[in-house]
Amino acid sequence: MESGSGTEFDGAKIAVLMGDRVLCLLRDDRPGLSDPGLWDLPGGGREGDETVEATALRELHEELGLRLDPARIFHRRFYVAPRPAWFLAADWPDLDPAAVRLGSEGQGWALMPVEEFLSRRDVVARFQTRLREALAARA
């Protein structure tokens, strides 16, 4: 659901695409954690008065050790539910998988084929929908 200007938001997620693959994280499986043990995309909560891009790029660095050039971002969309947050998508065709370093959150990471990410049952469902929308908008 899209609405409002998106100036007040809680967080941001980013789908980083390397050709026909998407960079994803396997969430921790702890009691009290939302969506435990599911595949997810990098991102998280806003700190202070960060911009949308600053939030997503900081989270990408913290979670996977990567610094993405903001010029690679091709999609930005604001969603109200389940909380006010942004969804971004970026192309990084020459991403070096050897540069990925799992941070302190998550059980693992993968460069998963996009079609697999979109069809698995163990993926946070709203990010499947949002990635589909980003890909459709790009096409």
Give me the CATH superfamily.
Answer: Nucleoside Triphosphate Pyrophosphohydrolase
**Total tally of structural domains:** 1
Strand content: 25-35%
Secondary-structure arrangement, i.e. CATH architecture: Alpha-Beta Complex
Query: What is the CATH class name?
Result: Alpha Beta
Unreliable runs: 1-5
Biggest sheet overview: 7 strands, mixed
Instruction: Tell me, briefly, the overall form.
Output: globular
Which fold name is given in CATH as the topology? Nucleoside Triphosphate Pyrophosphohydrolase
How many extended strands?
7
Oligomeric organization of the protein chains: single chain
Short characterization:
With 139 residues, the protein is α+β, with helices and mostly antiparallel strands. It is built from three helices and seven strands; from the N terminus they run E-E-E-E-H-E-E-E-H-H.
